[in-house]
Amino acid sequence: MSFSALNLDELTAQRDRALRDYEALVQRGLSLDLTRGKPSGRQLDLASALLALPGGHTAADGTDCRNYGGLQGLPEIREMFGGLLQVPAGQLIAAGNSSLSLMHDSIVHALLGRVPGAERRWVEEPRIAFLCPVPGYDRHFALCERFGIELIAVPMTAEGPDMDVVERLVLEDPQVKGIWCVPKYSNPSGVSYSDETVRRLAAMPAAAPDFRIFWDNAYAVHHLTDTPVEIADLLALCAESGNPDRAFVFGSTSKITFSGGGVAFFGSSPANVAWLLGHMAKGTIGPDKINQLRHVEFLRDEDGVLEHMRRHRELIRPKFDAVDLILTKELGGTGLASWSNPAGGYFIGLDVLEGCARQVVSRAAEAGIALTPAGATHPYGDDPRDSTIRIAPTYPELDEVELAIAGLAVCVRLVGTEKLLEQAR
Amino acid sequence: MSFSALNLDELTAQRDRALRDYEALVQRGLSLDLTRGKPSGRQLDLASALLALPGGHTAADGTDCRNYGGLQGLPEIREMFGGLLQVPAGQLIAAGNSSLSLMHDSIVHALLGRVPGAERRWVEEPRIAFLCPVPGYDRHFALCERFGIELIAVPMTAEGPDMDVVERLVLEDPQVKGIWCVPKYSNPSGVSYSDETVRRLAAMPAAAPDFRIFWDNAYAVHHLTDTPVEIADLLALCAESGNPDRAFVFGSTSKITFSGGGVAFFGSSPANVAWLLGHMAKGTIGPDKINQLRHVEFLRDEDGVLEHMRRHRELIRPKFDAVDLILTKELGGTGLASWSNPAGGYFIGLDVLEGCARQVVSRAAEAGIALTPAGATHPYGDDPRDSTIRIAPTYPELDEVELAIAGLAVCVRLVGTEKLLEQAR
């Protein structure tokens, strides 16, 4: 029964029960961490064989991977990931260990060197703004803030960003130069973009001739079900729509092999790839090709990647299931919260009553349960409804996830009933 | 006997002999490459054991190196290289595979974020200039050119850059924000900076409060003799002189282990390190700690690094000796050329008669001997005396080096005698 339908006495009783549960929770002195989307040790163990690789040091074309050179990265790893990231291998760059670095560098080079189509360097613009579908990923926002790029929040729907809003802002404001997208199993809501959303993103008219979609396909192969989500091919749709240079595609093996020791990718139109390589050439003599070769030997091919991801799924699916089970048991029907049940990715989005998220996170912290700060999912750390909480269940062991979520549910019940009581008075 | 003392007949005879030798050289149809400072395959083989490392995945402090985090890099690799680079380990950052990237990023962050001491971001300055001791390293110059930074050439002496010129320019012009230095076994002349030069660099008054020394200590342990050159400790001298934030120190294992798969370092004052880490934190979640651990296991400690470098020396010293021997035999006493006999590093600087370097490189190319373009050692590719040629003898096998240098000597003789004839007429 929805708690909002309870009378004052019933609500007070529920609040008292929640308070007793919370006090008991604090007494337990837990120390649990649901903050970051990190693979667990057991997931990393799946790639242990990487540590003793590569067996050789020669690439398919005879390149000695130990020496300098090969700016675009090994052809064989670009072939392996081209299909998975929906980028032709010739238009894919295989770089260092961090796709966030490639996003950072793309912005730096657009600031300091004219991106194809631009009338001037972004640093010469009076103002630069990026659209940020919310809830979204805090590191995307922080990257923009560091360069003084204005963040404009756009609501997410079940099909991706609200395209009516996006189309209007991109058409009206020539200073809107970019949009952040996590198109598949999005961080943190788990939403995947519908084909129609992708089509509209590719085709919409933009006031800025140098408008870019930052397509962070971080969870391209990170499925949690037997029916993998396929998203539409943004790069192809941009080309078909006469906007060939609109998409910057990013991906990595950070949550496939080793989070600290993987390979990151940038894919785009031939013009954008030539632009980025031209700038990269001034700043490096080439990526770590040995690590790329190591990945080629270990993952073998596209099927090898998908097979490896099934082993990840076996380890993390039970954690996602546990979260849903416990939240349903503890909060189902109360109307105090709703949450996503994602088909992939690394996060569960938890929505609590308006004005309650910060308090829930703070109560949880007092009980030894660390959560991503409330608001982190929004530009400037400001969730105007103060209702979004991000749950990252992959890193802790299953029993820790269960303990943490049961505790979190107590916090939601306590803060929610207090809020309803306050409103009822 | 110096060719400049020959009469016209003798000179013509020498030119004719050189022409016959050159024609015979072209007939041989060689294909040799002395362009880049790359280790040879046999040098890379010295670090073969790296390919099967690390044996574990846990750092000394318990960090799982496979996962995210650890922005500053593993403490143990910073300890290992701190002494060798003359930077306290706490002030050293261990990053990705490229020190050039760290130089690039340092400039980017100074352009886009105020470096300690700066009145404004460099991108807001009307003009930025860097001093470039010449001959110097083309990639340093290219990096500046890409960002529109003006390059001002400063002559090198046997003790480093001409400090009278440096001190005057740095004192007079507040837009001079940096100087490029390869302080030990410098590229390409092999010169190491004297203690007095380092002391003056650290202590000289600068008009720009945000003046920086880009100290590319690329050849810190790359000795070719039994008496390793030790340079003065720039970072300490800067601190003692009241200019604690003046030095950016760079280094890497690119020419110690694998050129494409090593570890790069940035060292500086606590304020500069905090500044750079703050910006890096927006663009990455951390470096490839697995590769750092791999290097720790393989190189073990400072002595392990030095021992490993002795094995490199055994492989490359004969190539440097061959260059000197052949040049002495073919050109000694002719006055047509002089060359360095470096005590370390990767290059030999060859000086030919004024106005001859481009022609020598071009003649050599026609004979199948590839050299770094003449002028590459100077800003904007412009060597005003057109006399400097860079020889990189490490990559080819010894017999190839011998063939290439003998051929190069023929080119020098031909172009030199033609030049003298032209002047004599």
Automatic annotation (TrEMBL), chains A, B:
One Pfam family named in its UniProt record: Asp_aminotransf
Gene Ontology MF term list: L-aspartate:2-oxoglutarate aminotransferase activity
SUPFAM superfamilies documented for this protein: PLP-dependent transferases
Positions of transmembrane segments: none
InterPro entries tied to this protein: AspAT_Ic, PyrdxlP-dep_Trfase, PyrdxlP-dep_Trfase_major, PyrdxlP-dep_Trfase_small
PANTHER family: AMINOTRANSFERASE, PUTATIVE-RELATED (PTHR43799), ASPARTATE AMINOTRANSFERASE (PTHR43799:SF1)
Name of protein: Transcriptional regulator, GntR family
